[in-house]
Amino acid sequence: MGSPGPSESITERMSAALQQRSMRVQRALDSPLRTTRTTVVIGRMLGVGFVVCFVTGIYSHLLQDPLAWLPLPVAPLHLYGWTQGVHVVVGSALIPLVLAKLWVVFPKLFAWPAVRSLSHLLERASLAALVATALMVPLTGALNTLQWYPWDFSFRRTHFALAWVLIGAMAVHVSVHLPAIVRAWRADADADADADADADAEGVSR
Q: What is the pTM of this model?
């Protein structure tokens, strides 16, 4: 076999240079707050918030476009008002949480190589869909509460469709990162157990 050709050598040099730049950028953006645990904590709140908004949104959608085979409860009298109040409040709170999550994981956007395998490419694609919908759904929902529609599409139909895309992309994202999430949960449990043990020891010593 002959030695690598000039084009292959150039490709390798470019990849090495980009790898070095990637590492420098990630070091420059590094922060003690940008940890897996912080990512998981914010992710928990986002997951709960998105599920709450999804369920309350489905309830509202089915009341407006009911299915004959799926009767929904409408009592007590203020049930719809309460569910939509929760939908609006939680949805508005999701905006700063999404921005916080993006701040924590921002350095990972500069990882090189950007795509390592087909499965990594699919995960990146689902992540792009998740980020886009996680920003658009709460933002358009907030503008809807202000009754300001700077777009030509139907808000209700688009909001409903994007909610399904968001939940699907979130399910893929959680399944891919489940091992890291489980490790962070276990770390939290171990930390709580250590704190309880220290408190008990302190109480005995008094």
A: 0.73
